Structures are given as structure tokens and as C-alpha cells.
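Following up on my earlier message about flavin-adenine dinucleotide. Here are the inputs again, as you asked, copied directly from the submission form:
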Amino acid sequence: MKAGIIGGGAAGLFAACQLKRLPGDKDLDVTLIEKNPIPGKKLTLTGHGRCNITNRKDPSMLKNCYHEAGNFIYPALKEFGPEDTISFFENDLGLKTKEEDNNRIFPVCDSAVTVRDTLVSYISDRVKIISGANVLDIKKGDVFEVNTSKGRFEFDIVILSSGGSSFPKTGSVGDSYNFLESFGHTIISPRGALAPVKAGKDSAELTKALSGVSLEAKVSLYLSDKLSASTKGEILFADFGLTGPAVMEIAREIPADVEGSNACLELDLIPSMSDDEFDRELIGLIGDHPDTKITNLIARYIPASVAGEISARAGFADIYAQGFPKESRRRLLRKIKHLKIDIAEAPSMDKAYVTRGGVSLKEVDRKTMQSKLVPGLYITGEALDVDGISGGFNLQACMSEAYLAAKSILSMQ
Ligand SMILES: Cc1cc2nc3c(=O)[nH]c(=O)nc-3n(C[C@H](O)[C@H](O)[C@H](O)COP(=O)(O)OP(=O)(O)OC[C@H]3O[C@@H](n4cnc5c(N)ncnc54)[C@H](O)[C@@H]3O)c2cc1C
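Thanks, got it. Here's what our run produced:
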């Protein structure tokens, strides 16, 4: 039997590792085909170069970290969860791990390049790696025929792990969708997820002026004046708009046709207080500190630079608390707790960390990752319509899916 792994990113490398380590026929001939000169280019960028490999979240909460794909991914997480990933890294790869805030797990070496190199070296005696080979098309007759820029290959089984279409400079340019469509699979339109958001012209100056400032906020997405989604967490102002975990998380809800639709992110910069509570605070402060500038009063709650910008833009830069009119207080409150940042465009695939969309999950067996349309075709990683929140969940999904695929393939031997 010959198995071909198409794409040597996280999902492809993990599948190759599982085919090596799981019990089963060691005569299975495994070839991994990767278009880049070295596999795992995106992997080397993960976790800001440190590779957040998984997350030790309470197992009962894990599937909630995958949005609409929670039920699909559940069996995979149950069979090969974060503890299995940690054990694989420590005991098979020899890479010690450590836990950081929010249960995120990193290798002790803090090096995503080392993770990639260790994975490649782990499989090198077991798997033939054909790198620099761009897969052009995949057909199925008696066997799978894979045409590449380096020649034609035949396989009995194919694991398709050529990724989504986010961060295309790493090699994943959406080829998976063409291969899968040619087999009759349905592709749910790919969109950027875990992505920064570009501010529209009404807010671009403000975000640029505050570039580099981060704070905790509640972020709400409004589409056509209707609340569509909201989350809380860290936001970061940037030259181009907004980023930071909370913004990146909500970005997946921004539709592709958002341009010109009046969409905005509303920021509550003091999420720990309701509007009424903060208003009462302001009334108290204004009464107690009549000789203090309004800007300095609000700087007690938000970073001074943000207080300065907001107050200046509202025309209160040099205004003292004494006699501050109710109307002005209400306007200030709206600017702090309902700060609207208009959205210029849908999240760019160039900057999105993961792809939302991909092959319809109805067409994939969630217990094996095998296509329900094409026997012998397995689909793993971002080619699937699965995207997780930030914190190591996307690599964990690749791991869990790779495990199920490898286990199913080896059980056929
Ligand atoms: C900057 C950044 C940081 C991230 N940090 C984290 C993190 O810390 N933790 C986490 O869990 N997730 C993180 N992610 C997300 C995570 O990296 C991805 O979800 C994961 O890499 C997806 O793996 P994949 O194998 O499906 O796709 P990819 O990693 O994109 O791999 C697909 C591979 O297929 C190859 N390929 C594509 N088309 C062809 C073709 N036609 N022929 C041959 N080969 C082909 C590509 O070159 C590529 O190597 C991050 C993503 C980015 C962009």
C-alpha cells in the first residue's frame, strides 16, 4: 500500500508522525509532497516564533473553542486531545513543554523552527519527503494519480493536507479547494479568521494616533446597525486599524461583502462598569474635582494617551470639570463606552492566521477524516471547514485530525 500526504504543513507533518508511531503495517509506503523547499513554513511562524502547540483547557470546554465545528471535531479531540499532544512532544519528539497564561502550551525551547525541524527529523527514516514539488492535480481511477511539477505519483490512499488560503506567502494558496472540488466536494467560501481589522476613513486617524496602545475592552460587531457578535479581551490600536486577541477573534464574523455597508466595531473601553455605573462615577468625580481637567479624570480609567485623544476629538482637551454640562458628560461617556471604529474591508487573507470555510463537514466522516464521497481520500487541517480560537487550538485540531486519519489508514492494513 502506498499513502501520499499532500502538503507538508502542520497537518501533513503530524499525519506522517502518526503513521510512523502508531501500531500497524510498517511496510506502508508513505510519501509527503510539499511545494516549498522545506516543509512546515507556516509552522515556523506560529506563536510569534515560539509555537503555541496546544491548550490545556478543561476537556469538557474544548469543543466550544471551534465555533460551528465543535461537534465535528469532538471525536478527534476525545481520541487525541491536548494531553496526548503534550505526551507526543515530550516522549516521542523529546521536546519538553511548559504552560503559560490561559493554559497555553509552548515548547520549553521557545522555538517554532526547532519544532518544525524535530518533526521533519522524526519522520525522515520512515517517510519519503518530496519537497519543492507543486501538486497540480489529483485524479482517482484504480489508484490516486497525483501530478506535480516534479512528476507523477500513484497512491492507494491520499491525505489531503494542503491547507486553507490564509497567509498565502507560506504556501497555502487555496489549492486544496480546487483538488476537492474536482472530486465533487462542496467548498464553503473561505474567509479570513483570527485577523486584524482595517479601520475605515472615519476612524483611521484615531487608530493611527493611538498605534501601539493596548487595553482590555469589550468589542461588539455591528452590521447594518444590528449587533452581530461581541467578545471581551485585549485590543491593540495599530497604524492600519485594530488588532489584538479580542479583535482577531471577532474578525471571523465580518462578512466578505462588508465594504460600504456601514459596519463597525464598537469598543467599550471600560467593560467592568455599565453605562449608568460609569455615569455615576463621572458625576462623582466632576463634583469632587472641579479644578481638574476632564482628560485627567478619565485617565483614571483608561490609558492617558487614549483619554487624551478621545477627549481632544470630543473638544474637551482643555475643559475643566467645573460646570461640565450633562450633555457633554453623556457625549464623553458614549465616546468611551461606545467608541465606533468603522470597518474598511473584510479581513485580508494575507494577514489572517487561519481560514474560516473549506470543505463541507457534512461530506467528511468525523471519526476517521475520510471523505464520504471518495473512499481512500482523507482530509485534515485547514482544508476542512474548521477554525479554532487563538491559544493553540488550531494546531491541536491538526494533531487530532491527523491521528484519526492515520489510525484509520493503519487499521485497513
Ligand atoms: C502567523 C501565524 C501564527 C500562528 N500561530 C499559531 C499558534 O501559535 N498556535 C496554533 O494553534 N495555531 C497557530 N496558527 C494557525 C496554524 O498555523 C494553522 O492552523 C496550521 O498551520 C494549519 O495547518 P495546515 O497543515 O492545515 O496548513 P498549512 O500549515 O498552511 O500547510 C499546508 C501546506 O501545504 C502546502 N501546499 C499547498 N498547496 C500545495 C500544492 N499545490 N502542492 C504541494 N504543497 C502544497 C503548503 O506549502 C503548506 O506547507 C498560526 C498561523 C499563523 C499564520
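One observation from looking it over: The longest strand covers residues 226-237. Hope that helps, and feel free to reply on this thread.
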